[in-house]
Amino acid sequence: MKLAVFWVLLINLIFPLSALAKPANYVLVAGDAQLRFHQQQISLLRDGKQLLLLDGLRFNYVQADSWNLVEANESQMTIRGSFPAKADFYRHVTDTKPRVAELTISKAAGGFRLYANPEWARQTTLSFGYLGDHFFGLSEPLQPDNRLSPDLTNSHIRVEIVAEHASFQENYASAYSSFFMSSYGYGAFFDTFARGQYQFAINGRNEIHHDTGELDWYLFPGANGAEIHEAYYQVIGAPKKVPAWALGPVGWRDQNDGGAAEIVDDVKKLTEMKIPFTSWFVDRPYSDGAHAWSDMNFSESFANPSQWITSLRHDYGLEFMTWTSPATFGDARFEKHLAGKFSYVDLSHPPTVAAFQQELKDEQYVHGVKGHKIDRADENLPMFEDWYDTVVSPAERRNKYSYLMAKVHDEALRKAWGDDQVTFARSAIHRSQPFLSAIWAGDPRTSWEGLQANFANAARSAFMGFPVWGTDVGGYQGEGYIPEDLYLRWMQAGSVSGLFEIKLDGAGGDGRDRMPWQYDAAFQRQFKAICDDRMRFIPYLYSLAYTAGITGSLMQPLAYRHLDDKNTYAIWDQFYLGEAIMAAPVFTPGNRRNVYFPKGNWRDLDAPAKIFKGQKLLEIEAPLDKLPRFIRENSIYVTGNLFVGNDRLWQTAEKQLTIHAYPGKAGSEALFHYVDALNGNREKSISLVTERKILKLTAPAMSHATRVEILLDNAAKKVQQQGEVVAHSYDSEQHQLSVSIPAGEPIDVWVSF
């Protein structure tokens, strides 16, 4: 009998039904988790372990005199709080009777929801005891103290989109969320755009405060970040899909003084060097009007945009994007603006939004523009100007404006291109995920410290539930031409991020640029090799991005997957790509780095004969041409040459998908959700089952030839495909078994030891 039913029966035995308004406690059950109200406190438990103890709920900074359970069933309970009579700021009288707030606790999205909205409340504070766990999320900026570690324990964190242009080595990393994750195995989300303050383990207490009287708080129990985020996305909406062309190398200059001709010439030269790219974008300035943007058109230097954008697509296989902003910089050309230095468009005013979207269509989409780098919502937003939507309070405006910015751009692009479009922004807030393809991590300084700070931003973004993140490869603030080792290490790290965009000049176009032909032949070879490698992994990254609603962030910090391993909590410079690959880029000068290997066995991706035992910190060699990556035991990933950009001009090999499998111990199973983008985005499950003397790899038929590669310590005795013995090869140096499967044939490989 379910525990919740047990409580109902017990309460009915003790109290007559007419007295059910005052039972002492109650329990809601969701999976293996329980939420209990008992002795004025709310507890979250799983498998008997207490994860959270909420013992303080204050409205307008005032604690209730008492809380009483008034109604309960298997799905929800209602608790009534009695608060002291108080005065309101905008009222001339003081209440003479106690105030009342009703708190509804219900099951939601695999977890629980706490909701209250007393009409007299303006602020909400949740207070709970510190139980020894660690906390992650809330802020892409490195709050507090520019610390790299994503662990927020012993911290005070602000949740409000305010530009931090003065932070050390960090500039305008501006993604925030009122979502955090606990190492005890739960996520918590306060569903409001109102600014918030969070503190963890300060004087033995945790506290959440938002400047709103509406409490809408979710708790999502889960064994790891992916499970927790799967429930979270059921509340805020699934993350936006990302087209494959946006997952290859993306090129841009901060300033194209040579206009459209310079863009085309850059692409032409890179193509001659056989360096692959799949898309390009132009940053401001490229338009007429205020700040070389407000007219939202292509200026004379970029004349005939239909012609050269079409050439990029047809002649080189590249899609094209532009810089945009909801600010018009003093040019109040739409019906409703917010007065101030930047003249922000009022995105709560439907006619203005419609006109802004129409301009994008008429000036850009008609010429073939398929995406936007969206900028500036984190700077100089006037908080107290009147919005058309009068319900949005000043406390909500900084955060909600970034949400509306993402939504407005996505709606415009979607009308023109459906899912075949991209939005990436540096400022973002929770609930933007269905409208933002990626987070672009602001303007890092061109230095080793800037590189480090930027990838610490990536770890925090992953915990918040922004699944695709990217860096300005090479940095933004600083010289154009940079040292080869810094450039290549940034390239390597960027190549294993979600959005791989490479900045090819200096800040504002200053200094000698960073085009690969500015460097020697050895550098050019490595630059090309990194881009080639990225192209090979697009099928894997595309599958991860497409299924992020259930598989979680692409770049998963170690603690995201190992909430119970305290050795992972401070690690910001290693991350999983899906479940199969752990990347450990080099973020300091030199050819060595320390790597922490979580539990299990690991193989070097480039030299799989090397095995590393888990739960150990080891120093590894990493020469400048080496990006350290490791394959997790009992996992599957895919690679292939299925997607092309300008490399279609020199690629001659037949399209082929390669399924890579690293079996686990006997009795283990692995599963990978492959998304066949060339066959209507059909999701195809690839499974690996390891038994004592046999392993089985199965998958539906693919729309292209497939090669199966399985890591084995010894040659197999027999290999079968659909019950028939098949030709295969075994590389004893790499410990790799290979089998080829024709297109259209189901994959059913059995290997006997």
Please give a structural write-up.
20% of the residues lie in helices and 33% in strands. The chain contains 12 helices and 47 strands. The two termini are 45 Å apart. The strands form 8 sheets. Strands 1, 2, 3, 4, 5, 10, 12, 15 and 16 form a 9-stranded antiparallel sheet that branches. Strands 6, 7, 8, 9, 11, 13, 14, 17 and 25 form a 9-stranded mixed sheet that branches. Residues 1-23 have low confidence and may be disordered. Helix 3 (259-272) packs parallel to helix 4 and helix 5 runs parallel beside helix 6 (394-417). It is of the alpha+beta class and 753 residues long. It is globular and about 85 Å long. The chain folds into 4 domains: 3-236, Beta-galactosidase, Chain A, domain 5; 246-550, Alpha-Beta Barrel (TIM Barrel); 555-576 and 589-627, Immunoglobulin-like; 635-752, Immunoglobulin-like (Sandwich), CATH 2.60.40.
Write a compact overview of the structure shown.
This protein is about 20% helix and about 35% strand. It has about 750 residues and is α+β, with helices and mostly antiparallel strands.
Outline the fold blueprint.
Blueprint: H1 3-14, E1 25-30, E2 33-38, E3 41-46, E4 49-59, E5 62-63, E6 66-72, E7 76-83, E8 99-108, E9 111-116, E10 124-129, E11 135-139, E12 155-159, E13 174-182, E14 186-190, E15 196-202, E16 205-210, E17 215-221, H2 225-236, E18 250-252, H3 259-272, E19 279-282, H4 305-316, E20 319-324, E21 337-338, E22 344-345, H5 350-363, E23 369-374, H6 394-417, E24 422-425, E25 427-428, E26 438-440, H7 448-464, E27 469-473, H8 484-495, E28 499-503, H9 521-536, H10 538-546, H11 548-551, E29 555-557, H12 558-561, E30 575-577, E31 581-583, E32 592-597, E33 601-604, E34 611-613, E35 616-621, E36 629-632, E37 635-640, E38 656-662, E39 669-676, E40 682-690, E41 694-699, E42 705-711, E43 718-721, E44 724-725, E45 729-731, E46 736-741, E47 747-752
